Amino acid sequence: MKYVSRVPRPPLDELIDDLYYLEGDPPYARLTLPASPAALLIVNLGAPFRIRGGTDIETADYADGCVVTMPTRAWDFGYPRGTRSVGVHFKPWGLAPFLRMPAAELCDRPVTVEQVWGRPAIAALQDRLLTVDGPHQMLSLLEEELMRRLGETAGLGLVRHTSRVIAATRGGVAIGDLSVAAGVSSTHLAQRFKELIGVTPKRLARTHRFAATVFAINPAGPIDWSDLAAGAGYFDQAHFGHEFRAFTGLTPTRYVEFRRRFMREHPGHAMDGWPLPAD
Fold first, then answer.
1. Please, which pLDDT band fits residue 53 given cuts at 50, 70 and 90?
2. pLDDT per residue over 83-108, tens digit each?
3. 3-state secondary structure the chain
């Protein structure tokens, strides 16, 4: 698959990790994406893809693309053969200025871009993207669209600052200390987080700790699970295993088996690292 990405210019870089272009045949018919401290927007330029966002949600087709606030559990994604799209990897709070509704309404419930921006807007954007030449021009056009839609969002500064503290400590900060430092009540802070990110500060901290722990795993070598769990601050290996299943739907050893399968069957693939085979 062809994958091109870049960081947008200010002020979007305060909201977005990167813009990307993806084209080609997927490594597997279905992929599982573990929960992570990030949000996602995809503008689809090919055949529909399929998503199941939670255990209580049926798989659905997404023709124009999708919007995914920060997930709390693993979700399934099925790319068609010959897929083509542009997308945005948002920081946890970064999607809020582009939504019409509180992020909590979309938690673990992916929606189409049409449901967020309206059919005329996404259709016009798709048409413009298909008229430019090459991925870099597409990303510039997508960046222009995001700049045009960027507006003021109440409470964004509070949520952004607090989220950065959580990320810097890999989820190890005491949540009560965050509200005291911000000069607001814990209830107010939790409400703002749910409005702009979709989850509470405590849930974001759990996700950051889990993601940092998983990214520290080298699936190609031996793994001391007890040592890994203790180093990440989990109570014990059982606590670590419970969190692993909550965020991925897999046991730690099963997760590593899937990672090794991906590495073995598709060495150096652009998508290796977080998505896992689901078929």
1. confident
2. 999 999 999 999 999 999 999 999 99
3. CEEEEECCCCCHHHCEEEEEEEEECCCCCCEEECCCCCEEEEEECCCCEEEECCCCCCCEEECCEEEECCCCCCEEEECCCCEEEEEEEECCCCCHHHCCCCHHHHCCCCECHHHHHCHHHHHHHHHHHHHCCCHHHHHHHHHHHHHHHCCCCCCHHHHHHHHHHHHHCCCCCCHHHHHHHHCCCHHHHHHHHHHHCCCCHHHHHHHHHHHHHHHCCCCCCCCCHHHHHHHCCCCCHHHHHHHHHHHHCCCHHHHHHHHHHHHHHCCCCCCCCCCEECC
